[in-house]
Amino acid sequence: MIVEGAMRKAYQNLSIRLKLTLAIVSASFLVLILFSGVFIAAEIYTFRKAMVSEVSVLANIISLSATENLMLKRQTGDTQILESLKAQPHIRAAFLFDLTDTPRAQYLDNSAMEFIREAISLDFPASKAEQWRRTEGRRVSLDWSHLGMFNPVYFQNERVGTLYLLSDMKDLSSRIHALLFGFLLALGALGPFSLLLSRYLTRPIAQPLLNLFETMAAVSRNKDFSVRADKETSDEIGHLVDGFNDMLTQIEIRDSKLADHQKYLEEKVLNRTLLLQETVASLEQAKLAADSANQAKSQFLANMTHELRTPLIGVLGMNELLARTELSEQQLSLVDTVQRSGESLLALISDILDFSKIDAGFLRLDNVEVDLYKVVEEATRLLAEKAVAKNLYLTCQIMPEAMWKVRTDPSRFRQILLNLIGNALKFTESGSVAVKLDMQMSGSALGHFTLTVEDSGIGISQQEQARIFSPFVQSDNTSTRQHGGTGLGLAIVRQLVQMMDGKISLNSREGAGSTFTVELPLPLISKQLPGLPATLRGRRVLLYQQDGNTQGAIRVMLSGLGLQTVEAASPDDIWHRLQLDQRQNFPFDYAIIPMEAVLLDGSLLSEKLKNEPLLASLRIIVTGCRFPAGTDQADRSLAFLELPATWMNLTTCLVRKWQRIELVSGQDKHISTKEPVCGRVEQRPYSMQHRVLLADDNAVTRELICLSLAKHSVAIDIAGNGVEALELLESAEYDLILMDCNMPELDGIEATRRLRQRGCQIPVIALTAHVDQRVYENFASAGVNDSLRKPFRQNELFSVIEKWLKYDHGQPTATPLQLPNITEGEG
Prior knowledge:
Helix content is about 50%, strand content about 15%. It is of the alpha/beta class. Among the domains are: about 15-175, Beta-Lactamase (2-Layer Sandwich), CATH 3.30.450.20; about 370-525, Heat Shock Protein 90 (2-Layer Sandwich); about 540-670, 3-Layer(aba) Sandwich (Rossmann fold); about 690-805, Rossmann fold (3-Layer(aba) Sandwich), CATH 3.40.50.2300.
């Protein structure tokens, strides 16, 4: 097949003259071969027919001569009759048989005994012996090497014997060899003749085509379409030349028109180029104007954010101080309303600013190592109080496959979580909100993480789902009035997910809740699955929770920790199972039950289990959103697992309960039924030996910080701008500087830069209402050590001061500022 293809390709590449020559020569040879073949076949047929006829005549003559002896059964004379065949050189053997097939006489050519033996073995096979005996007529055995003839001998129509004659075919072979020799001589003579004939016959066809080809090459080479090919014949080739000349005429006319049109286009292009240059100049001016406007917009947004957040420091900060005074219940309620309203306003401002940053392309993602499941758990616990306030179940289920340290932006991932969970809590009035994190391997170093937030809220219609991720859109305009918000949360989530190369989808039905699914491909670093001591693995746990999602989440964690988990259907089922297994000497090691679980008889399940002597070895863990007021937390028979449960909390609770030590961390938070507006403030051991310089042009901020630090006996000096701050630094020594970044005459960034140029290494904490990352880069370049974003809470203020005020009364060592991650919704 390959050889055939190569030959075909080689033939196609030949010139037309060679193709015609090859065709004529091939046809001549083919005719000669066919003629010679027919002639030789005819000669062979004629020769064989003549040979059979000649042998038949000899057989008749011999048969007539031997008839009398066969009839009379005389033994004399038969041999002499057969010996007469010596006159025929081609007869090599003869045998005369009587009726019993017994040889009476024979003739053998001693010079051809080998031939005779081979021929006889072919003519007298055992399988044909009976056939030859019974033959009534003449039979011939003929091939290329011999001719054998069986001739029955009759006398008056009665068979009296059989004659067998054997002749060779050497004359036929000689004849064939002579014919082949003659064929080869004719073939050799035909070659030169056919070549001469082909040259004569192909010239009228090939030469005009070659002339046409040369004309085409000249036209192609010189681009001169005025040349015409010479017409030599009026046949098809002549028509081809006419067509080629017509084509050249059309091309020449077209070129003439194109030249005229080109001249016209050049003039038109020149005019349009001038117009385009004018347009480009206008666009450049417009671009400069747009860039200037965009920069002005960005600066405006930054300034507006600063100006909007700055007054909130007075609202939220002073309100926080007010909440720590002696107030009536009604006054505390009003203070709480002010605090929540201020925080809602701050969240709205952050959403609008963050969407603007994403839309303008200013947002950048970090790529750091983080325990992803911890981010999910922390975000869920941050919003647990909102779920408690609405009497909703909030669960966090982290599958063991998702317990990995990965590379991503934790702040942006946390923001996605807070927006999705907060949105679910906002639009869910009863039931539950379930958060789940799972992962499937996508290669050896990449994990395909799936985050789902499912709620039992109002749901979203199919019509609204198509635009729910668009900016400023909520599922119903009435929801904005009922639930609040700007409609930017899901738009921000979608854009952040896309920036992380992920996908977000929604599955919802109106009135039947919603499920948001976020899929993110993240690089894997290391597995982070917590473990239990060997003594606890395989322990039996009886589990019951009123909420199915909560029970499922705890079951997954227990199985991942290597514990045997048995699930109960009700409080009474727990009670009966524990008693039955205890009697069967197959007790449970742990029982995890809700704090408020009640038996059918009205008794509290946890109390009944605690007081049952048979269950003295049972370790009881009660679950709830907060430890109820009035409950004896010193009772070591119960351990408390705060919901939503996390891997670390559950692991710690199991270990400490096994060691008969209750996990009571965070007691202050669980004792009261309601937290203060801004959390509990710890007393810090500052003294008058610490001196702080506060530089801020805003009187409200100065008053707030002074009031906050008044109880801590910290000496504070105040400056209204950067110039005053530098003057005070020349005359006094300070342990810490609180420096506002926006001040008249000299701002805090430039003041810090000048301070560092003097060689002063006092820690500087920047006070700012900006959220632009570039502002923090300016802080770092100026030598600022830390930052505090307005509006701040009391604990945030105390934490940053405690971080930089050391207790050894020595000069603190300044370290450079670590750039923060700006996260939506942060206050």
